[in-house]
Design brief:
With 297 residues, this protein is α+β, with helices and mostly antiparallel strands. The protein is 31% helix and 35% strand. It has one domain: Glutaredoxin (3-Layer(aba) Sandwich).
Length: 297
């Protein structure tokens, strides 16, 4: 019985280390072919509210082909923030531009979509313009409240003049009735936080929220680290990682996405939690077996 006790203790200790490792290594994802659709919108925009009647179905029907990002106005909009202001500026937009407007892979539609079919056509055009995309691999790990997102592009199409960008999106941001002058009480995929880093600089909004590195040789490796934002629900958040080319002259359409992917954090945790059931059941069986042999002795 002494040997059986020793084996049981060893297995329990092994499981404890395994569980600890899985808590730190939350999720791994691989992709890159998604098109990034960024919508400039506002809570007071009536046409935006009309578009919201069909945009969610259009986005859902395309699955991983499209990543939706809502950029809210800085004018009289409670969902507007520093991250959206920066991103709209990066896209070459200002708050005086009309809403809604759509940018696909960094390029704004020349003729704004007014129907689901037209928006679908813009997605197809963006996919055709991409020609090819890179493979982007991401590993997310948690250590208490500190999040680390490691992003790797092993065979980048381009390194110079490119950035690695991380976004946190609130899947459904609620709007107070007194603020929702267009009648919509929520907004989907709202940009809340952003980090963009390249060989020369790092941009972070809100300021001092996180940090990132950009290392390149024959491949690109970026490590984003940040504390989980206060007020942002972990179970209702999407992380987006993009490798993108900055425009040296926007008039010539040089801004573009090289690879992009996204995933929801609640799915990551569910998958990891499910993976723990098998070892837990196994240890439970060993404990029952140990008790049985103890009584037999």
């Amino acid at each position: 019985m002494g040997r059986l006790s020793l084996v049981l203790v060893f297995l329990i200790l092994t499981l404890s280390f395994s569980v600890q490792g899985q808590e730190n290594n939350i999720h791994q994802v691989r992709g890159g072919g998604s098109v990034v659709m960024e919508m400039s919108t506002a809570v007071w925009c009536d046409i935006c509210a009309e578009h919201e009647e069909w945009i969610p179905d259009m986005v859902d029907s395309n699955g991983d082909r499209i990543i939706r990002v809502n950029l809210h106005s800085a004018i009289n909009d409670p969902l507007g923030n520093e991250a959206s202001n920066y991103r709209k500026s990066w896209l070459g937009q200002t708050d005086t531009d009309s809403t809604p407007s759509y940018s696909f892979d960094g390029l704004r539609e020349s003729t704004p979509s007014s129907s689901s079919g037209e928006l679908q056509r813009s997605l197809l055009d963006a996919e055709a313009d991409r020609v090819q995309h890179e493979v982007l691999e991401v590993r997310v790990s948690f250590d208490s409240l500190i999040v680390s997102v490691e992003a790797v592009v092993n065979e980048p199409l381009q390194i110079n003049s490119t950035s690695m960008t991380l976004m946190l999106l609130e899947n459904e941001a609620l709007i107070a009735p007194e603020d929702a002058t267009n009648g919509k009480l929520s907004s989907n995929s709202v940009l809340k936080n952003i980090i963009s880093v390249n060989e020369n600089e790092m941009i972070v909004y809100p300021q001092n929220w996180g940090a990132a590195t950009f290392d390149s040789n024959s491949s690109i490796f970026s490590n984003f680290t940040f504390s989980w934002p206060s007020g942002l629900d972990y179970n209702s958040t999407t992380i987006v990682v993009i490798h993108e080319k900055s425009a040296t002259n926007p008039d010539f359409g040089e801004r573009t996405t090289l690879s992009a992917l996204s995933w929801t954090l609640d799915q990551s945790v569910e998958n990891e939690s499910f993976s723990l059931w098998i070892p837990l059941i196994f240890v439970g069986f060993l404990i029952a077996l140990f008790r049985f042999y103890s009584h037999e002795q």
